[in-house]
Design a protein that fits this description.
The complex is a heterodimer of chains A (about 240) and B (about 350).
Chain A lengths: L21 H15 L5 E5 L14 E4 L5 H11 L4 E7 H7 L1 H9 L5 E6 L29 H4 L5 H5 L5 E8 L3 H19 L4 E7 L3 H4 L3 H15 L3 E5 L2
Parallel strand pairs in A: 1-2, 1-3, 3-4, 4-6, 5-6
Antiparallel strand pairs in A: 5-7
Helix pairs in contact in A: 1-7, 3-4
Chain B lengths: L7 E4 H11 L4 E4 L7 H12 L3 E4 L3 H13 L4 E5 L1 H16 L4 E7 L15 H6 L9 E3 L4 H18 L2 E7 H5 L1 E4 L27 E2 L9 H19 L3 E4 L6 E4 L2 H16 L4 E6 L1 E3 L3 H7 L5 E6 L5 H9 L5 E5 L8 H13 L1
Parallel strand pairs in B: 2-3, 2-4, 4-5, 5-7, 6-7, 11-12, 11-14, 14-15
Antiparallel strand pairs in B: 1-8, 6-13, 10-12
Helix pairs in contact in B: 1-2, 1-6, 3-4, 9-12, 10-11
The chains are: A alpha/beta (about 240), B alpha/beta (about 350).
């Protein structure tokens, strides 16, 4: 078992809150990059949101994109440098609200990139507003009485949505809320990068992740929230694998 | 194809494409909108033929963000659109300017506001020269008047973009874009010594990782420092780029000023005035930013009045007034909404202003 810090992560503390899932997700992405020996070929995109500062943590080339547009920028990079490994790291507001069009069309073009999609069902950095993936009944600072299907519609299920697109190669939903989930998430992320290396096309790994601060839960309760609430609305599993 | 005797009979929109390809453009992303549809159509076959990448984006927003990525790899890249589509690109343009990425953006203007119409117009001068997107940034704005000039300025645009690490906007209009005329395809030759691109993202092999970003949170004055750096660059551009054509201004009592297609039409009107013995000249800004202020001050030695002609309700006139420093009356002739003047109409206005 490896407990050393991956080379793809700098030896520095992160700004993430206690119990946040970003730290684990970063570690898994970095470990996959290390394991595949691609760090010097990687260009990542940083999103608008809590992970915007990921270039302070990732020991590889990073471009910080405008809100929702990472898939478009990643398309530009990958088409210009097809032998480099390009990944986007996006939150739910970035990927499934403001950037919905870019997500769908990049996926449908089958762009040979890897998307790491962090779904924590809330807007983290702006202070806990409703996300496109906020669940029915879930409170946020803009759904103080809970998300109401009549007012805001139901949450968007990204893997299910994208699975209808013929251009997509690999879709898997994982979580980082239990050791078993973390191991599974690491395998999925590595597979998504491997598919890109093999030129197989568009891969997306959705990571159900904790946001104790904006859920107003303790880190331990936030883990329970993922396991008991989120997994029933967003069931983990492989939604497409055409690799 | 590159022989010096070659002559093309080619549409403005396609002139821009062919010049871009020969200047080494390796990536184009765009979205259809009239009157610039020939641009993505031409690029869709010509760019791959030359070894480049063409992408029809799902939106103008996606197209400009594809450029954001392509430019970050150091690839010469371009997008084009027309007025409403350029509005959609503004957020991306702000990011590209903030991140100091070189790219070329063409606006083949149509009538506005809103959906407007599809005829040539010049209603986007403010948007092009005063920002358009958010934040303190500047675009280098080039305003070709003929297809031949469009050829040259398109090539130059890539050099300016790379030299200054700044987006360059080609501000054309539907008349220029849709006009077919003979063009001598002068071979591409860099107009400046181009710096090495030691900032690109291509994987960190053999070097430290690089970051391209526009967020500056720490330390607390980081964004102020970044803005200061940008302003110093803009001042340098302002000092170095003086792109203007002057016709018969040496003895002109009245100076007509116009850019792009309007300036070309105004030249005919000035010839008519000269034939009638009227001392009329023309100042044609070729760059709209940086604006050639000095040309106006110089002309004021003899000129008593300036007449600004635009295919808009009057936008460049504000910069002309500033350049003239209230030292002479500045008159206006123009309309908005996809109208263009004839030389006779401009001449009528010249005559009226001249005799006042």
């Amino acid at each position: 078992m490896k407990f050393a810090r991956p080379e793809t992560l700098y030896d520095t503390p992160t700004h993430y809150c206690s119990g946040c899932g970003h730290g684990v997700a970063h570690r898994l992405v970095a470990q996959a990059i290390d394991d595949l020996g691609i760090r010097e070929r990687v260009i990542g995109t940083a999103p608008v949101g809590c992970a915007v500062l990921m270039y302070d943590y990732f020991n590889c080339d990073i471009i910080e994109c405008s809100h929702g547009r990472s898939p478009a920028a990643a398309t530009g990079i990958k088409r210009c440098l097809p032998d480099r490994i390009v990944f986007t790291y996006q939150g739910d507001g970035d990927l499934a609200a403001i950037g919905t069009a870019e997500t769908i069309h990049t996926a449908n073009r089958g762009e040979n990139i890897t998307v790491i999609f962090i779904n924590n069902a809330i807007y983290g950095m702006t202070g806990g507003q409703m996300a496109p993936t906020t669940m029915l009944g879930q409170t946020s600072t803009t759904t103080p009485d809970g998300r109401d299907v009549k007012l805001q519609g139901p949450p968007i299920k990204v893997c299910e949505l994208l699975s209808s697109l013929d251009g997509v190669t690999y879709l898997e939903r994982v979580a980082v809320s239990t050791p078993r989930d973390v191991i599974r998430a690491g395998q999925a992320i590595k597979k998504a990068f491997q598919y890109q290396i093999d030129g197989k096309g568009f891969s997306l790994v959705e990571v159900l992740s904790m946001c104790p601060t904006d859920w107003k839960l303790t880190p331990a309760k936030a883990v329970d929230f993922v396991n008991n609430e989120m997994k029933s609305v967003f069931p983990p599993g492989v939604y497409k694998d055409a690799g | 194809m590159n022989s010096t005797t070659e002559k093309l009979f080619i549409k403005g929109n396609e002139v821009m494409c062919e010049a871009a390809v020969r200047a080494g453009c390796g990536f184009f992303a765009g979205y259809p909108i009239t009157p610039q549809n020939e641009v993505p159509e031409y690029m869709s076959w010509r760019l791959p033929e030359a070894g480049g990448v063409f992408l029809q984006a799902e939106s103008e927003i996606a197209a400009i963000n594809m450029l954001f990525g392509a430019a970050a790899t150091g690839t010469r890249c371009m997008t084009s659109s027309s007025s409403p589509g350029i509005s959609l690109k503004q957020e991306g343009i702000s990011y590209i300017a903030g991140a100091e990425l070189p790219c070329v953006i063409a606006n083949i203007q149509r009538g506005g506001p809103g959906l407007g119409n599809i005829r040539g117009a010049q209603g986007d001068y403010f948007q092009a020269t005063k920002g358009g997107g958010h934040g303190d940034y500047r675009l280098i704005v080039l305003a070709p008047a003929t297809c031949q000039e469009l050829w040259q300025l398109t090539m130059n645009a890539f050099d300016y973009a790379d030299y200054y690490r700044n987006p360059v906007l080609i501000l054309g209009d539907g008349i220029l874009g849709q006009m077919t005329e003979p063009v001598k395809p002068i071979p591409y030759k860099p107009i400046v010594e181009l710096p090495e691109k030691d900032w690109i993202l291509n994987g960190c092999k053999g070097r430290k990782p690089r970051v391209i970003r526009t967020l500056f949170l720490h330390p607390s004055d980081a964004l102020t420092q970044h803005n200061q750096h940008l302003q110093e660059k803009y001042q340098k551009i302002h000092q170095e780029l003086k792109l203007v054509e002057q016709v018969n201004t040496e003895d002109a009592k009245l100076v007509v000023t116009a850019y792009g297609s309007t300036a070309r039409i105004a030249k005919g009107a000035i010839q008519m005035a000269r034939r009638k013995g009227m001392k009329v000249g023309l100042i044609r800004p070729i760059a709209l930013w940086p604006f050639p202020d000095q040309a106006y001050l110089s002309a004021l030695g003899t000129a008593k009045k300036i007449l600004v002609c635009e295919m808009s309700q009057g936008q460049m006139i504000e910069d002309v007034r500033l350049a003239c420093q209230c030292k002479c009356p500045v008159e206006f002739f123009g309309y908005g909404g996809g109208w263009y003047p004839t030389p006779e109409k401009i001449f009528d206005r010249i005559q009226a202003v001249y005799e006042e």
